[in-house]
Specification:
By secondary structure, this protein is mainly α. It contains two helices and no strands.
Length: 69
């Protein structure tokens, strides 16, 4: 995997998830006006985060990062 491909994969798989969480979390946490706001964020990782196939190490690393979030 080339460096631009790695940066793209990190941008989609890791930073995309992080941006989605940071965008929607403020609407989910309780505030002074409403103590009933709630929700659930489900992050989908991959079995590759535990068991990487040959030549898929970078992809597995990005999926493991999602699992860690």
């Amino acid at each position: 995997m080339t460096e631009p491909e790695l940066q793209f994969s990190l941008g989609v798989n890791v930073m995309g998830v992080a941006r989605a969480i940071s965008t929607f979390y403020p609407y989910m946490k309780p505030t002074q006006d409403s103590a009933t706001q709630s929700g659930c964020i489900v992050n989908i990782a991959s079995i590759a985060s535990f068991l990487a196939a040959p030549l898929m190490g970078y992809y597995a690393a990005t999926k493991h990062a999602v699992l860690g979030m």
